[in-house]
Fold:
Amino acid sequence: MKLQFKGKVGRQEILEEVSRLLNTLEDLGVDNFSSVNLYFTPRQGNKSVTPLIDDVAFSPCHKSKSKHISSEKNTETGVQTIKYAKGVMISDMDLEKRFSNVEISLKTKAEIDDDNELVRLKEESERMHLKHLLDEQFKEFKKNQDEIVVIEDNCLLKISEIYRLSLIDLKPKISSVGWIVCKKRILKHSRTITEDEVYRITLKADNETPKKIYLFSASSEVIFES
Structure:
């Protein structure tokens, strides 16, 4: 069942009408209730307001303390009997309690909408800033990639000059290419190499020449050949 109020009401009417209904039901034999929910719109003057805790709507949930029941145990039989409280008076209730352990604020819908708009604008600004950073990083990455391609092309040209071959004729002779950025791997080729990263071109062995490994610096200069 539900209790409805038509029109705007204050605290006194709510307490009185709820009490009237509960008293009536108790007279009829009702001694407990389940699925109890109280829905209403708080107002401040002529404006609807929302109670908030840290900008989150305040919706308290009361866990039953079972004040409506008590139990008695028969010392002779050991049987426990449950009794439901009846005839509870106003003097038996604490109607002056408050949610004093939390900080609650009241805001109108317009104020909440303004706050949400500020949050949206802040998030949008952060997204734009992040996009700008990513764009700049991509530009830097693209620039570095372009520079790397130039270095690799220059290294191939150096090899083609050494063997007096065109790039087209050189290509079938190449076994593998790639950058070495591990200092240990670099030093395996030569302990005198000071660069932290080198470009490697490995040529296949054939009937005339053995397998050859060339290492190049970032300036496309040969710094090692096997």
